[in-house]
TrEMBL record:
Keywords tagged on the record: Signal
Keyword field contains Signal: yes
Signal peptide (residue range): 1-21
InterPro entries recorded: GerMN
UniProt keyword annotation of Signal present: yes
Matching SMART domains: Germane
Superkingdom: Bacteria
Chain spans, region Disordered: 331-350
Listed name of the protein: GerMN domain-containing protein
GerMN domain segment(s): 91-180, 241-330
Family annotation (PROSITE patterns): PROKAR_LIPOPROTEIN (PS51257)
Amino acid sequence: MFKNKAKILGLAVLTSTVVLSGCGLFGSETQKKIDPPKTVTTTSEKNTNKETAAVKKEKAENAMKTELYLIDKNGYVVPQTLNLPKTKSVAKQALDYLVVNGPVTDMLPNDFRAVLPEDTKPSVNIKDGVAVVDFSKEFKNYQPEDELKILQSVTWTLTQFAGVNSVKLKMNGHELTEMPVKGTPISEKLSRATGINLDTKDVVDITNTKPITVYFIGGEEGSYYYVPVTRRVKASEKDPITAAVNELIKGPSEKSNLVSQFMSDVKLNEAPKYQDGTVTLNFNKNIYGSFEEKVISQNLLDTLVLSLTEQKGVEKVAVLVDGKAELKNDKGKKLSAPVTRPEKVNTGSF
């Protein structure tokens, strides 16, 4: 059951990765009809089917999955993985697809909108891990309330690509030290450390804190997706893994539209163990989505893995319950190996 939302997630499946998946929306058995009429396929229909399959194959071969950080109806900046045409200029293309009324228009998921002002033309130059983006003058034509969202979207969209660690912004060839509408200061190099969907409501003194990004669940039944949220934790917190787990257990703000499958009585039995890129977490039995069947929700696992692999050096997450490793998810799949982060996030609704 989701925390902070009186909804039960029906037919919840992992859509952001093939790891630990393999179960469809429906079971493998279907109801059989008695003596169903035989279907006769003509030669013309067979040729049409072949052509359709060939077109689909060609489209798949000429496409590449790309995360675009778009704005949902609640104002969150959310990664949505779309199939874009293959190109050598992946960074520029991603920005082109962030422009309002640009090539992304017919591909936008329901209740999502593009980020950059209409007719904005970006150029990108990547060197030494820094993507220098130069926007045309149309870049300044955005609504004031979108200023931070634009910064976050551009930064997180570009840093998905290998070789891009940070972003620098220009407009008409001139370096931007602040955003052109509300004047939000821009650091010399923007990175994911800047955060996304900032939640600072309980922070009194931000100078004594540091950022932790965790993932909650947004959307509505039938079209849920994962939303990154950056919280602030005490600067004295030495273990970012425990801090991230605690934020997941704490759950999203009650005033937000986000939900979580972590219940408040979930606890770690011991400190996380880290070795060679793998974090091992030993939870109490309250991590189970069902005590009777002793299964762990796949959506809970997804938010856990997405959150922890945001930490530098973490590549996989292994989960134990009261020290035992023989677990399974709510699709009946055994969790026999540590879980890796999906290559792309939010490839579809769940």
